[in-house]
Model the fold of this input.
Amino acid sequence: MLDIAFKNLAEHKLRTFLTVLGIAIAITAIVALGSISAGMKEIVHSSLKQMGSDTIIVMKHIDITYGPPQIREIDEDIANEIAGMDGVELAVPVVRTNYLGIVPILGINFEDAALFNIEDVDFKDGGWYDDEEYGCVIGKNVAEERKLGVGDEIEINGKKLDIVGVFEAGEIKGMNYIIAMPYTVAQDVLDMKGKATMIIVKPTDIKYTSSIKHQIEEEYDDMQALTTQDMLKMASEITSTVSIVTLGIGFVASIVAAIGIIITMLNSVHERKRQIGIMKAIGANRLWIIIEVLEESLIVSIIAGIAGLVAGSVMVSFVNKYVLAGFNIASVTPELAAFAFIYSISLALVFSLYPAWRASTIDPIEAIRD
Amino acid sequence: MTWVFRTVNVWKTYSIGNVKTHALRGISLRIKRGSYIAIIGPSGSGKSTLMHILGCLDTPTKGKVYVDGMDVSKLSDGKLAEIRRRKIGFVFQAYNLINTLNALENVMLPMRLDGVAKRIASKRAKELLERFGLGKRLYNKPNQLSGGEQQRVAIARALINNPSAVLADEPTGNLDSKTGKGVMDLLESLNKEMGKTLVIVTHDPTIASRANKRVYIRDGKIEKED
Done:
Protein backbone atom coordinates (compact mmCIF):
# COMPACT_ATOMS: atom_id res chain seq x y z
CA MET A 1 0.00 0.00 0.00
CA LEU A 2 2.09 2.83 -1.36
CA ASP A 3 -0.25 5.50 0.01
CA ILE A 4 0.54 4.43 3.56
CA ALA A 5 4.27 4.39 2.75
CA PHE A 6 3.97 7.94 1.39
CA LYS A 7 2.15 9.08 4.53
CA ASN A 8 4.82 7.61 6.77
CA LEU A 9 7.55 9.35 4.80
CA ALA A 10 5.65 12.65 4.80
CA GLU A 11 5.22 12.40 8.56
CA HIS A 12 9.00 12.70 9.00
CA LYS A 13 10.01 15.09 6.26
CA LEU A 14 13.45 15.94 7.59
CA ARG A 15 14.43 12.33 8.09
CA THR A 16 13.13 11.39 4.66
CA PHE A 17 15.01 14.31 3.14
CA LEU A 18 18.28 13.29 4.82
CA THR A 19 17.96 9.70 3.64
CA VAL A 20 17.22 10.88 0.12
CA LEU A 21 20.20 13.23 0.32
CA GLY A 22 22.56 10.44 1.41
CA ILE A 23 21.61 8.21 -1.50
CA ALA A 24 21.44 11.12 -3.95
CA ILE A 25 25.01 12.13 -3.13
CA ALA A 26 26.24 8.63 -3.92
CA ILE A 27 24.30 8.59 -7.19
CA THR A 28 25.56 12.07 -8.10
CA ALA A 29 29.13 10.89 -7.56
CA ILE A 30 28.57 7.80 -9.68
CA VAL A 31 26.88 9.72 -12.50
CA ALA A 32 29.41 12.56 -12.55
CA LEU A 33 32.52 10.43 -12.21
CA GLY A 34 31.17 7.74 -14.49
CA SER A 35 30.47 10.13 -17.32
CA ILE A 36 33.70 12.06 -16.87
CA SER A 37 35.72 8.87 -16.86
CA ALA A 38 33.85 7.62 -19.93
CA GLY A 39 34.67 10.98 -21.56
CA MET A 40 38.35 10.58 -20.67
CA LYS A 41 38.44 7.08 -22.10
CA GLU A 42 36.87 8.45 -25.26
CA ILE A 43 39.64 11.05 -25.59
CA VAL A 44 42.34 8.43 -25.08
CA HIS A 45 40.62 6.20 -27.56
CA SER A 46 40.32 8.95 -30.17
CA SER A 47 43.97 9.84 -29.87
CA LEU A 48 44.85 6.24 -30.36
CA LYS A 49 42.78 5.94 -33.49
CA GLN A 50 44.75 8.79 -35.02
CA MET A 51 47.78 6.57 -35.33
CA GLY A 52 48.30 4.17 -38.14
CA SER A 53 49.20 0.72 -36.98
CA ASP A 54 52.80 1.10 -38.14
CA THR A 55 53.53 4.72 -37.21
CA ILE A 56 55.82 5.77 -34.39
CA ILE A 57 55.33 8.95 -32.44
CA VAL A 58 58.43 10.66 -31.12
CA MET A 59 58.15 13.19 -28.33
CA LYS A 60 59.77 14.39 -25.16
CA HIS A 61 59.48 12.09 -22.17
CA ILE A 62 56.15 12.37 -20.44
CA ASP A 63 56.39 12.54 -16.73
CA ILE A 64 52.87 12.47 -15.46
CA THR A 65 53.99 13.14 -11.91
CA TYR A 66 54.83 16.74 -12.77
CA GLY A 67 51.48 18.45 -12.77
CA PRO A 68 49.49 19.27 -15.88
CA PRO A 69 51.04 18.44 -19.23
CA GLN A 70 53.04 21.24 -20.80
CA ILE A 71 53.95 21.84 -24.40
CA ARG A 72 57.22 19.98 -24.68
CA GLU A 73 59.06 21.48 -27.59
CA ILE A 74 61.51 19.52 -29.68
CA ASP A 75 63.83 20.71 -32.39
CA GLU A 76 62.23 20.21 -35.79
CA ASP A 77 65.63 19.39 -37.30
CA ILE A 78 65.49 16.09 -35.44
CA ALA A 79 62.84 15.07 -37.97
CA ASN A 80 65.39 15.33 -40.77
CA GLU A 81 67.89 13.30 -38.76
CA ILE A 82 65.33 10.57 -38.11
CA ALA A 83 64.33 10.59 -41.77
CA GLY A 84 67.90 9.53 -42.53
CA MET A 85 67.76 6.46 -40.30
CA ASP A 86 67.54 2.94 -41.68
CA GLY A 87 64.07 1.74 -42.58
CA VAL A 88 62.44 5.17 -42.19
CA GLU A 89 60.24 6.22 -45.04
CA LEU A 90 59.01 9.50 -43.63
CA ALA A 91 59.50 11.64 -40.52
CA VAL A 92 57.15 14.57 -40.24
CA PRO A 93 57.28 17.21 -37.48
CA VAL A 94 53.89 18.14 -36.13
CA VAL A 95 52.62 20.69 -33.61
CA ARG A 96 49.95 19.34 -31.36
CA THR A 97 48.85 20.93 -28.11
CA ASN A 98 46.62 18.69 -26.21
CA TYR A 99 45.65 19.59 -22.74
CA LEU A 100 42.44 20.39 -21.03
CA GLY A 101 41.39 23.97 -20.56
CA ILE A 102 42.23 25.29 -24.01
CA VAL A 103 41.26 24.23 -27.48
CA PRO A 104 43.86 21.81 -28.79
CA ILE A 105 45.76 23.02 -31.83
CA LEU A 106 47.01 20.67 -34.46
CA GLY A 107 49.65 22.00 -36.83
CA ILE A 108 50.00 19.60 -39.71
CA ASN A 109 50.27 20.15 -43.42
CA PHE A 110 47.43 18.83 -45.52
CA GLU A 111 49.85 16.64 -47.50
CA ASP A 112 50.73 14.86 -44.23
CA ALA A 113 47.17 14.63 -42.89
CA ALA A 114 46.93 10.99 -43.83
CA LEU A 115 49.60 10.22 -41.24
CA PHE A 116 47.15 11.37 -38.59
CA ASN A 117 44.20 9.55 -40.09
CA ILE A 118 42.35 12.80 -40.54
CA GLU A 119 42.55 13.42 -44.26
CA ASP A 120 39.05 12.04 -44.83
CA VAL A 121 37.07 14.01 -42.26
CA ASP A 122 33.68 15.10 -43.49
CA PHE A 123 33.53 18.82 -44.23
CA LYS A 124 30.20 20.41 -43.36
CA ASP A 125 31.35 23.65 -44.93
CA GLY A 126 34.48 24.73 -46.82
CA GLY A 127 37.42 22.35 -47.10
CA TRP A 128 41.07 21.78 -46.27
CA TYR A 129 43.50 24.66 -46.22
CA ASP A 130 46.35 25.13 -48.65
CA ASP A 131 49.54 24.50 -46.79
CA GLU A 132 50.75 28.02 -47.67
CA GLU A 133 47.54 29.65 -46.47
CA TYR A 134 47.30 31.54 -43.16
CA GLY A 135 44.09 29.81 -42.22
CA CYS A 136 42.64 26.92 -40.30
CA VAL A 137 39.86 24.36 -40.19
CA ILE A 138 37.85 23.72 -37.06
CA GLY A 139 35.94 20.77 -35.65
CA LYS A 140 32.17 21.06 -35.47
CA ASN A 141 32.13 21.33 -31.67
CA VAL A 142 34.51 24.29 -31.75
CA ALA A 143 32.25 25.86 -34.37
CA GLU A 144 29.15 25.27 -32.28
CA GLU A 145 30.62 26.36 -28.96
CA ARG A 146 32.15 29.54 -30.35
CA LYS A 147 29.50 30.16 -32.98
CA LEU A 148 32.05 30.33 -35.75
CA GLY A 149 31.83 29.34 -39.40
CA VAL A 150 33.67 29.50 -42.67
CA GLY A 151 34.67 33.10 -43.47
CA ASP A 152 34.93 34.06 -39.80
CA GLU A 153 38.23 34.77 -38.12
CA ILE A 154 39.50 33.05 -35.03
CA GLU A 155 41.96 34.76 -32.73
CA ILE A 156 44.65 32.72 -31.05
CA ASN A 157 47.40 34.37 -29.01
CA GLY A 158 46.51 37.69 -30.60
CA LYS A 159 46.85 36.36 -34.14
CA LYS A 160 43.89 36.19 -36.46
CA LEU A 161 43.31 33.21 -38.72
CA ASP A 162 40.72 32.75 -41.45
CA ILE A 163 38.46 29.76 -40.97
CA VAL A 164 38.34 27.91 -44.29
CA GLY A 165 36.52 24.77 -43.25
CA VAL A 166 34.29 23.26 -40.59
CA PHE A 167 34.46 19.47 -40.38
CA GLU A 168 32.82 16.65 -38.57
CA ALA A 169 35.02 13.77 -37.54
CA GLY A 170 33.65 10.29 -37.82
CA GLU A 171 35.04 7.73 -35.43
CA ILE A 172 37.69 9.97 -33.91
CA LYS A 173 35.32 12.03 -31.82
CA GLY A 174 38.11 14.04 -30.19
CA MET A 175 38.87 15.67 -33.56
CA ASN A 176 35.64 17.64 -33.30
CA TYR A 177 37.24 19.74 -30.60
CA ILE A 178 40.34 20.66 -32.56
CA ILE A 179 41.64 23.60 -34.57
CA ALA A 180 43.88 22.34 -37.35
CA MET A 181 46.19 24.54 -39.38
CA PRO A 182 49.30 24.22 -41.52
CA TYR A 183 52.46 23.32 -39.61
CA THR A 184 54.22 26.64 -40.05
CA VAL A 185 51.08 28.58 -39.16
CA ALA A 186 50.83 26.67 -35.88
CA GLN A 187 54.49 27.45 -35.16
CA ASP A 188 53.79 31.11 -35.78
CA VAL A 189 50.61 31.20 -33.68
CA LEU A 190 52.19 29.40 -30.77
CA ASP A 191 55.44 31.34 -31.14
CA MET A 192 57.62 28.27 -31.53
CA LYS A 193 59.71 28.88 -34.65
CA GLY A 194 61.80 25.87 -35.61
CA LYS A 195 60.12 23.72 -32.97
CA ALA A 196 57.62 20.89 -33.07
CA THR A 197 55.89 18.92 -30.31
CA MET A 198 56.11 15.53 -31.94
CA ILE A 199 57.48 13.75 -34.93
CA ILE A 200 55.47 11.16 -36.75
CA VAL A 201 57.67 8.46 -38.21
CA LYS A 202 56.54 6.00 -40.86
CA PRO A 203 58.73 3.00 -41.54
CA THR A 204 59.24 1.56 -45.00
CA ASP A 205 57.88 -1.68 -43.59
CA ILE A 206 56.09 -2.58 -40.34
CA LYS A 207 58.89 -5.01 -39.42
CA TYR A 208 61.29 -2.07 -38.87
CA THR A 209 59.03 -0.40 -36.28
CA SER A 210 60.81 -1.84 -33.29
CA SER A 211 64.35 -1.24 -34.55
CA ILE A 212 63.54 2.37 -35.43
CA LYS A 213 62.10 2.89 -31.94
CA HIS A 214 65.32 1.65 -30.38
CA GLN A 215 67.53 3.70 -32.69
CA ILE A 216 65.68 6.89 -31.80
CA GLU A 217 65.69 6.26 -28.07
CA GLU A 218 69.42 5.49 -28.12
CA GLU A 219 70.24 8.57 -30.13
CA TYR A 220 68.13 11.02 -28.12
CA ASP A 221 68.15 10.53 -24.34
CA ASP A 222 65.27 12.88 -23.64
CA MET A 223 62.97 11.45 -26.27
CA GLN A 224 60.60 8.58 -26.33
CA ALA A 225 59.40 6.79 -29.39
CA LEU A 226 55.98 5.31 -28.95
CA THR A 227 54.69 2.56 -31.15
CA THR A 228 51.03 1.63 -31.39
CA GLN A 229 51.73 -1.13 -28.88
CA ASP A 230 53.18 1.37 -26.39
CA MET A 231 50.23 3.69 -26.86
CA LEU A 232 47.75 0.90 -26.32
CA LYS A 233 49.51 -0.03 -23.11
CA MET A 234 49.52 3.56 -21.89
CA ALA A 235 45.91 4.01 -22.82
CA SER A 236 44.82 0.95 -20.92
CA GLU A 237 46.85 2.06 -17.90
CA ILE A 238 45.22 5.49 -17.95
CA THR A 239 41.72 4.18 -18.41
CA SER A 240 42.07 1.53 -15.74
CA THR A 241 43.42 4.11 -13.27
CA VAL A 242 40.47 6.36 -14.04
CA SER A 243 38.09 3.44 -13.63
CA ILE A 244 39.60 2.41 -10.31
CA VAL A 245 39.39 5.95 -8.93
CA THR A 246 35.80 6.24 -10.14
CA LEU A 247 34.80 2.92 -8.67
CA GLY A 248 36.59 3.73 -5.41
CA ILE A 249 34.80 7.01 -4.91
CA GLY A 250 31.47 5.45 -5.93
CA PHE A 251 32.08 2.62 -3.47
CA VAL A 252 32.87 4.92 -0.55
CA ALA A 253 29.84 7.09 -1.34
CA SER A 254 27.69 3.95 -1.49
CA ILE A 255 28.89 2.75 1.91
CA VAL A 256 28.06 6.12 3.44
CA ALA A 257 24.62 6.00 1.82
CA ALA A 258 24.06 2.40 2.94
CA ILE A 259 24.89 3.23 6.56
CA GLY A 260 22.51 6.18 6.28
CA ILE A 261 19.74 3.95 4.98
CA ILE A 262 20.18 1.33 7.71
CA ILE A 263 20.29 3.90 10.50
CA THR A 264 17.29 5.92 9.32
CA MET A 265 15.18 2.89 8.52
CA LEU A 266 15.97 1.24 11.88
CA ASN A 267 15.20 4.49 13.60
CA SER A 268 11.96 4.82 11.69
CA VAL A 269 10.94 1.24 12.51
CA HIS A 270 11.76 1.78 16.17
CA GLU A 271 9.71 4.97 16.28
CA ARG A 272 6.77 3.28 14.64
CA LYS A 273 6.89 0.19 16.82
CA ARG A 274 3.41 0.87 18.11
CA GLN A 275 1.98 1.51 14.64
CA ILE A 276 3.51 -1.72 13.33
CA GLY A 277 2.19 -3.57 16.41
CA ILE A 278 -1.31 -2.24 15.75
CA MET A 279 -1.11 -3.32 12.11
CA LYS A 280 -0.09 -6.80 13.14
CA ALA A 281 -2.85 -6.93 15.76
CA ILE A 282 -5.51 -6.12 13.19
CA GLY A 283 -4.24 -8.72 10.80
CA ALA A 284 -1.05 -7.72 8.98
CA ASN A 285 1.33 -10.64 8.54
CA ARG A 286 5.11 -10.43 8.62
CA LEU A 287 5.50 -10.29 4.84
CA TRP A 288 3.12 -7.38 4.68
CA ILE A 289 5.17 -5.43 7.23
CA ILE A 290 8.40 -6.22 5.33
CA ILE A 291 6.85 -5.02 2.07
CA GLU A 292 5.57 -1.87 3.76
CA VAL A 293 9.09 -0.93 4.94
CA LEU A 294 10.60 -1.82 1.56
CA GLU A 295 7.99 0.31 -0.20
CA GLU A 296 9.16 3.27 1.81
CA SER A 297 12.76 2.72 0.83
CA LEU A 298 11.67 2.19 -2.77
CA ILE A 299 10.03 5.62 -2.80
CA VAL A 300 13.08 7.17 -1.14
CA SER A 301 15.42 5.53 -3.64
CA ILE A 302 13.40 6.57 -6.69
CA ILE A 303 13.41 10.19 -5.52
CA ALA A 304 17.12 9.92 -4.65
CA GLY A 305 17.88 8.29 -8.01
CA ILE A 306 16.18 11.09 -9.93
CA ALA A 307 17.79 13.76 -7.74
CA GLY A 308 21.21 12.13 -8.17
CA LEU A 309 20.79 11.92 -11.93
CA VAL A 310 19.79 15.56 -12.16
CA ALA A 311 22.60 16.72 -9.85
CA GLY A 312 25.11 14.49 -11.65
CA SER A 313 24.06 15.84 -15.05
CA VAL A 314 24.31 19.42 -13.81
CA MET A 315 27.77 18.64 -12.49
CA VAL A 316 28.80 17.06 -15.79
CA SER A 317 27.63 20.06 -17.79
CA PHE A 318 29.49 22.29 -15.35
CA VAL A 319 32.67 20.26 -15.84
CA ASN A 320 32.18 20.33 -19.62
CA LYS A 321 31.69 24.06 -19.63
CA TYR A 322 34.32 25.26 -17.19
CA VAL A 323 36.89 22.47 -16.89
CA LEU A 324 36.82 20.97 -20.35
CA ALA A 325 36.53 24.36 -22.08
CA GLY A 326 33.12 23.76 -23.54
CA PHE A 327 33.83 20.39 -25.08
CA ASN A 328 31.00 18.05 -24.34
CA ILE A 329 33.38 15.22 -23.69
CA ALA A 330 31.71 13.93 -20.55
CA SER A 331 28.17 12.83 -21.15
CA VAL A 332 25.50 11.02 -19.16
CA THR A 333 24.69 8.12 -21.45
CA PRO A 334 21.34 6.31 -21.17
CA GLU A 335 23.22 3.23 -20.00
CA LEU A 336 24.90 5.16 -17.20
CA ALA A 337 21.62 6.83 -16.21
CA ALA A 338 19.85 3.46 -16.13
CA PHE A 339 22.67 1.92 -14.13
CA ALA A 340 22.67 4.76 -11.59
CA PHE A 341 18.91 4.56 -11.20
CA ILE A 342 18.83 0.80 -10.74
CA TYR A 343 21.81 1.04 -8.42
CA SER A 344 20.00 3.58 -6.26
CA ILE A 345 16.98 1.32 -5.94
CA SER A 346 19.03 -1.81 -5.26
CA LEU A 347 21.14 -0.02 -2.67
CA ALA A 348 18.07 1.18 -0.78
CA LEU A 349 16.23 -2.14 -0.99
CA VAL A 350 19.19 -4.29 0.03
CA PHE A 351 20.08 -2.16 3.01
CA SER A 352 16.44 -1.87 4.11
CA LEU A 353 16.06 -5.63 4.31
CA TYR A 354 17.43 -5.85 7.84
CA PRO A 355 15.29 -2.97 9.20
CA ALA A 356 12.29 -4.49 7.40
CA TRP A 357 12.95 -7.87 8.95
CA ARG A 358 13.31 -6.23 12.36
CA ALA A 359 9.97 -4.50 11.87
CA SER A 360 8.32 -7.80 11.00
CA THR A 361 9.45 -9.38 14.27
CA ILE A 362 7.82 -6.72 16.45
CA ASP A 363 5.54 -8.38 18.99
CA PRO A 364 2.09 -6.77 18.70
CA ILE A 365 1.18 -7.36 22.34
CA GLU A 366 4.33 -5.69 23.59
CA ALA A 367 4.03 -2.83 21.08
CA ILE A 368 0.43 -2.10 22.04
CA ARG A 369 1.10 -2.32 25.76
CA ASP A 370 3.95 0.26 25.61
CA MET B 1 -20.68 -24.55 14.83
CA THR B 2 -22.03 -23.50 18.21
CA TRP B 3 -18.80 -22.33 19.80
CA VAL B 4 -16.89 -19.34 18.49
CA PHE B 5 -14.16 -19.83 21.07
CA ARG B 6 -13.24 -22.94 22.97
CA THR B 7 -10.19 -23.40 25.14
CA VAL B 8 -9.07 -26.68 26.67
CA ASN B 9 -6.73 -26.55 29.66
CA VAL B 10 -4.85 -23.49 28.40
CA TRP B 11 -1.62 -22.52 30.16
CA LYS B 12 0.52 -19.50 29.47
CA THR B 13 3.88 -19.46 31.14
CA TYR B 14 6.54 -16.75 30.91
CA SER B 15 10.12 -17.63 31.76
CA ILE B 16 12.54 -14.94 32.79
CA GLY B 17 15.81 -16.67 33.55
CA ASN B 18 14.94 -19.55 35.81
CA VAL B 19 11.82 -17.90 37.15
CA LYS B 20 8.57 -19.12 35.65
CA THR B 21 5.43 -17.08 35.88
CA HIS B 22 2.11 -18.67 35.01
CA ALA B 23 -0.24 -16.07 33.57
CA LEU B 24 -2.90 -18.70 32.83
CA ARG B 25 -3.24 -22.00 34.66
CA GLY B 26 -5.47 -24.41 32.86
CA ILE B 27 -8.31 -22.30 31.47
CA SER B 28 -11.15 -24.25 29.85
CA LEU B 29 -13.81 -22.03 28.43
CA ARG B 30 -16.58 -22.15 25.85
CA ILE B 31 -18.04 -19.07 24.24
CA LYS B 32 -21.21 -19.59 22.25
CA ARG B 33 -21.85 -17.91 18.91
CA GLY B 34 -23.85 -14.71 19.35
CA SER B 35 -23.28 -14.56 23.10
CA TYR B 36 -22.25 -11.55 25.18
CA ILE B 37 -19.66 -12.40 27.78
CA ALA B 38 -17.63 -10.38 30.23
CA ILE B 39 -14.30 -11.66 31.45
CA ILE B 40 -13.79 -9.98 34.79
CA GLY B 41 -10.86 -9.95 37.15
CA PRO B 42 -8.41 -7.70 38.96
CA SER B 43 -5.31 -6.43 37.18
CA GLY B 44 -2.70 -9.15 36.81
CA SER B 45 -5.31 -11.87 36.92
CA GLY B 46 -4.51 -13.00 33.38
CA LYS B 47 -7.67 -11.71 31.73
CA SER B 48 -5.81 -9.73 29.06
CA THR B 49 -3.55 -12.70 28.33
CA LEU B 50 -6.67 -14.80 27.87
CA MET B 51 -8.10 -12.24 25.48
CA HIS B 52 -4.84 -12.17 23.49
CA ILE B 53 -4.92 -15.95 23.20
CA LEU B 54 -8.60 -16.01 22.20
CA GLY B 55 -7.82 -13.28 19.65
CA CYS B 56 -4.86 -15.18 18.16
CA LEU B 57 -2.43 -12.43 19.15
CA ASP B 58 -0.66 -14.94 21.35
CA THR B 59 -0.35 -18.69 21.51
CA PRO B 60 -0.72 -20.87 24.63
CA THR B 61 2.27 -22.60 26.19
CA LYS B 62 0.05 -25.65 26.75
CA GLY B 63 -3.51 -26.60 25.88
CA LYS B 64 -5.77 -26.12 22.87
CA VAL B 65 -7.56 -23.12 21.50
CA TYR B 66 -10.31 -23.42 18.89
CA VAL B 67 -11.64 -20.47 16.93
CA ASP B 68 -14.73 -21.28 14.86
CA GLY B 69 -13.87 -24.91 15.42
CA MET B 70 -10.31 -24.60 14.11
CA ASP B 71 -7.38 -25.51 16.34
CA VAL B 72 -5.24 -22.36 16.35
CA SER B 73 -2.75 -23.39 19.06
CA LYS B 74 -0.03 -24.31 16.61
CA LEU B 75 -0.77 -22.19 13.54
CA SER B 76 1.88 -20.18 11.71
CA ASP B 77 2.26 -16.45 12.12
CA GLY B 78 0.70 -15.81 8.72
CA LYS B 79 -2.30 -18.02 9.39
CA LEU B 80 -2.92 -16.39 12.78
CA ALA B 81 -2.75 -12.98 11.11
CA GLU B 82 -5.40 -14.13 8.66
CA ILE B 83 -7.71 -15.22 11.50
CA ARG B 84 -7.20 -11.89 13.29
CA ARG B 85 -8.00 -10.12 10.06
CA ARG B 86 -11.10 -12.06 9.10
CA LYS B 87 -12.70 -13.58 12.16
CA ILE B 88 -11.91 -11.24 15.02
CA GLY B 89 -12.36 -7.54 15.66
CA PHE B 90 -10.30 -5.95 18.42
CA VAL B 91 -11.21 -2.93 20.51
CA PHE B 92 -8.53 -1.73 22.89
CA GLN B 93 -8.54 0.54 25.91
CA ALA B 94 -6.11 2.97 24.25
CA TYR B 95 -8.04 2.84 20.92
CA ASN B 96 -4.80 1.99 19.06
CA LEU B 97 -5.59 3.92 15.92
CA ILE B 98 -2.79 4.76 13.52
CA ASN B 99 -1.95 8.42 13.98
CA THR B 100 -0.78 9.09 10.43
CA LEU B 101 -4.07 7.89 8.95
CA ASN B 102 -7.44 9.61 9.15
CA ALA B 103 -10.59 7.99 10.55
CA LEU B 104 -11.67 6.59 7.19
CA GLU B 105 -8.23 5.17 6.38
CA ASN B 106 -7.96 3.60 9.83
CA VAL B 107 -11.27 1.82 9.37
CA MET B 108 -10.38 0.68 5.85
CA LEU B 109 -7.05 -0.79 6.92
CA PRO B 110 -8.06 -4.36 7.89
CA MET B 111 -10.00 -4.67 4.65
CA ARG B 112 -7.06 -3.45 2.60
CA LEU B 113 -4.76 -5.81 4.49
CA ASP B 114 -7.07 -8.51 3.19
CA GLY B 115 -6.40 -7.37 -0.37
CA VAL B 116 -9.69 -5.60 -0.99
CA ALA B 117 -9.54 -2.65 -3.42
CA LYS B 118 -9.28 0.78 -1.85
CA ARG B 119 -12.52 1.97 -3.45
CA ILE B 120 -14.60 -0.90 -2.08
CA ALA B 121 -13.00 -0.68 1.37
CA SER B 122 -13.60 3.06 1.43
CA LYS B 123 -17.30 2.62 0.63
CA ARG B 124 -17.83 0.12 3.42
CA ALA B 125 -15.77 2.15 5.92
CA LYS B 126 -17.83 5.25 5.14
CA GLU B 127 -21.09 3.36 5.71
CA LEU B 128 -19.90 2.14 9.10
CA LEU B 129 -18.60 5.51 10.24
CA GLU B 130 -21.80 7.23 9.15
CA ARG B 131 -23.84 4.67 11.03
CA PHE B 132 -21.75 5.38 14.14
CA GLY B 133 -22.41 9.13 13.84
CA LEU B 134 -18.96 9.97 12.51
CA GLY B 135 -19.99 10.98 8.99
CA LYS B 136 -18.52 14.43 9.48
CA ARG B 137 -15.25 13.16 10.96
CA LEU B 138 -14.14 10.89 8.12
CA TYR B 139 -11.02 12.87 7.27
CA ASN B 140 -9.96 13.76 10.78
CA LYS B 141 -6.85 12.18 12.19
CA PRO B 142 -7.04 10.48 15.61
CA ASN B 143 -5.51 13.48 17.41
CA GLN B 144 -8.37 15.63 16.08
CA LEU B 145 -11.00 13.31 17.58
CA SER B 146 -12.30 13.02 21.15
CA GLY B 147 -11.74 9.82 23.11
CA GLY B 148 -15.30 8.64 22.50
CA GLU B 149 -14.99 9.34 18.79
CA GLN B 150 -11.68 7.51 18.59
CA GLN B 151 -13.19 4.48 20.28
CA ARG B 152 -16.10 4.49 17.84
CA VAL B 153 -13.63 4.63 14.94
CA ALA B 154 -11.85 1.66 16.53
CA ILE B 155 -15.16 -0.22 16.77
CA ALA B 156 -15.86 0.50 13.10
CA ARG B 157 -12.38 -0.82 12.28
CA ALA B 158 -13.10 -3.97 14.30
CA LEU B 159 -16.25 -4.56 12.24
CA ILE B 160 -15.06 -3.80 8.74
CA ASN B 161 -14.21 -7.36 7.77
CA ASN B 162 -17.47 -8.61 9.25
CA PRO B 163 -15.84 -10.82 11.93
CA SER B 164 -17.57 -13.53 13.97
CA ALA B 165 -16.54 -11.96 17.25
CA VAL B 166 -15.52 -8.64 18.74
CA LEU B 167 -13.02 -8.71 21.59
CA ALA B 168 -12.92 -5.54 23.68
CA ASP B 169 -10.20 -5.00 26.29
CA GLU B 170 -11.34 -2.39 28.84
CA PRO B 171 -13.09 -0.44 26.06
CA THR B 172 -14.26 2.32 28.40
CA GLY B 173 -11.12 2.49 30.51
CA ASN B 174 -9.97 5.81 29.06
CA LEU B 175 -13.41 7.43 28.88
CA ASP B 176 -15.61 9.37 31.26
CA SER B 177 -18.73 7.53 32.42
CA LYS B 178 -21.14 9.23 30.01
CA THR B 179 -18.98 8.64 26.94
CA GLY B 180 -18.19 5.16 28.26
CA LYS B 181 -21.88 4.35 28.38
CA GLY B 182 -22.29 5.48 24.78
CA VAL B 183 -19.45 3.20 23.70
CA MET B 184 -20.90 0.28 25.65
CA ASP B 185 -24.30 0.88 24.06
CA LEU B 186 -22.70 0.80 20.64
CA LEU B 187 -20.79 -2.41 21.41
CA GLU B 188 -23.91 -4.06 22.76
CA SER B 189 -25.84 -3.07 19.64
CA LEU B 190 -23.33 -5.11 17.62
CA ASN B 191 -24.37 -8.11 19.69
CA LYS B 192 -28.09 -7.43 19.72
CA GLU B 193 -28.62 -6.09 16.24
CA MET B 194 -25.87 -7.74 14.25
CA GLY B 195 -25.58 -10.94 16.23
CA LYS B 196 -21.83 -10.58 16.81
CA THR B 197 -20.28 -12.53 19.63
CA LEU B 198 -19.07 -9.92 22.11
CA VAL B 199 -16.34 -10.56 24.66
CA ILE B 200 -15.59 -7.70 27.04
CA VAL B 201 -12.56 -7.84 29.29
CA THR B 202 -12.92 -5.57 32.29
CA HIS B 203 -12.14 -5.09 35.96
CA ASP B 204 -15.30 -3.03 36.42
CA PRO B 205 -18.25 -4.99 37.89
CA THR B 206 -20.76 -2.41 36.60
CA ILE B 207 -19.67 -2.98 33.03
CA ALA B 208 -19.51 -6.72 33.56
CA SER B 209 -23.02 -6.75 34.97
CA ARG B 210 -24.39 -5.71 31.57
CA ALA B 211 -23.20 -8.94 29.93
CA ASN B 212 -25.31 -12.10 29.64
CA LYS B 213 -22.60 -14.14 31.23
CA ARG B 214 -19.57 -13.39 33.40
CA VAL B 215 -16.36 -15.36 33.73
CA TYR B 216 -14.36 -14.44 36.83
CA ILE B 217 -10.60 -14.87 36.53
CA ARG B 218 -8.14 -14.79 39.41
CA ASP B 219 -4.49 -15.87 39.43
CA GLY B 220 -4.81 -17.32 35.95
CA LYS B 221 -7.71 -19.57 36.79
CA ILE B 222 -11.44 -19.38 36.31
CA GLU B 223 -12.84 -18.65 39.75
CA LYS B 224 -16.49 -18.85 38.81
CA GLU B 225 -18.96 -18.25 36.01
CA ASP B 226 -22.44 -16.81 36.29
